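Quick log. Single chain, no ligands specified.
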Amino acid sequence: MRTLAFTATQIGERLDKVIAAAFPQFSRSQAQRLIADGCVDVDGRPALKPGQKLDRPAEVRIRLPDPAPTGTPAEALPLAIVYEDADLLVIDKPAGLVVHPAAGHAAGTLVNAVLGYDPDLEGVGDEQRPGIVHRLDRDTSGLIVVARNDRAHRHLQRQFHDRLVDKRYLALVDGAPPTATGRIEAALGRDPTDRKRMAVVPNDRGRMAVTEYAVLERFPAHTLLECRLLTGRTHQIRVHLAYLRCPIVGDTVYGRRRPSLPLERHFLHAARLTLALPGSGERRTFTAPLPRDLEQALENLRG
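-> predicted structure:
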């Protein structure tokens, strides 16, 4: 157990707000939870409640319990790290790698790998998904960012929530969209006939999703698109493009049961990611080249 101590001088201010201001690694809700759990003393006495206000300068002591184990084993798995600093990792995830443990995937995930690379990630954010602030489908390759501390986790979550992260994907589709550029605004929810799938649904039955696209290259029966996500719903690009009647090549869930090209997975790659670094605030862009299997598919079409 660790103990943090400081002298609080903010007369008339709420205790939870004082703690969050003194220690940026704590959110207000985390400070409230520490107070409710009896982990905070004011002048040697247990804090009464999160809204307790200081009527004079006081010595505040916070006892931090040891982090509970996540139950997720660290594994020495290879990682293609595009960038790292004290706050985050940017990783080029290969197709076939599940992001976090779930039913049927207790090990061998990206989370297992990053815990093997940086054990201090344990307990950052969600205990079952330490460091994860967004995700990619198992068979989608490309860039994913992992937070290395709670402050960075909150900073990145805010950026994703406020749509400040620019995410660009490359997708090869069967057929072509109706226009060279476009914007798809359609709510997504569970498919009423198959709960394992997502579908475009009425606005009052789902969550609004927005995808922009632009044609990069045309082929006789296929089109290469750049897609920009303005929201981050489950299977968003895959469902939206299928809704336009140009499903992603190799997507046997939302597209053709028999892929039109000899691919072992769908042609979707998170190629570019732009965000503000939590430490400096500098806005940086990261890129990941197409994996060999997708590049070969394009070469065959150009051939």
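DSSP finds six helices and 15 strands in the chain.
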